């Protein structure tokens, strides 16, 4: 055990007011292509809550249906525009303030999300967050393949990613912030779990040696 204090934040519905992945696809593809992609992928999208379709595969296929085998440079530029033009309107001021509180106390803040790292890393850098554990898109010869590289970072995968990230340096205190079923395993790891709408915000602890 170390003196580390870690605050792990889910993104969609926790830091944001709505799903950022759908907002990204809509912003990058435009309304017409977004709707056509949704219709094309409707069976798999509808099958996710019924556990008839894999959540990660459905998400990756929807992005491919909307944008096709886009080049990395194209999607990277779309991610830049999304973070600059659309994402700010989705952010919750109270959660941004909570992130800043953790940072001011010297806690390590980590973003843990099922959404693609493609745009999450850009936003996280702007918020002073160094670590992003998220779903990764698969690329081949510089183009998007329509698949994820590795597992969808949802549910049990969130706690697995956190454990792999800290390795032998498990935190003395772990805060976990979420809003849905996909955050339960991460919350179960935490000393101070918070799921939106279920419990009050936990009190803040000081890192060893005081605030930084």
From TrEMBL:
Biological process (GO), any one: L-serine biosynthetic process
GO molecular function list: L-phosphoserine phosphatase activity; magnesium ion binding
Alphabetical list of SUPFAM superfamilies matching this protein: HAD-like
One term under GO cellular component: cytoplasm
Taxonomic placement: Bacteria, Pseudomonadati, Pseudomonadota, Betaproteobacteria, Burkholderiales
PANTHER family noted in UniProt: HAD-IB FAMILY HYDROLASE, PHOSPHOSERINE PHOSPHATASE
Signal peptide positions (record): none
InterPro entries found in the cross-reference section: HAD-like_SerB, HAD-like_sf, HAD_hydro_SerB1, HAD_sf
Short name of any one Pfam family annotated for the protein: HAD
Top-level division of the source organism's lineage: Bacteria
Organism: Paraburkholderia caballeronis
Protein name: Phosphatidylglycerophosphatase C
NCBIfam families named among the record's database cross-references: HAD-SF-IB, HAD-SF-IB-hyp1
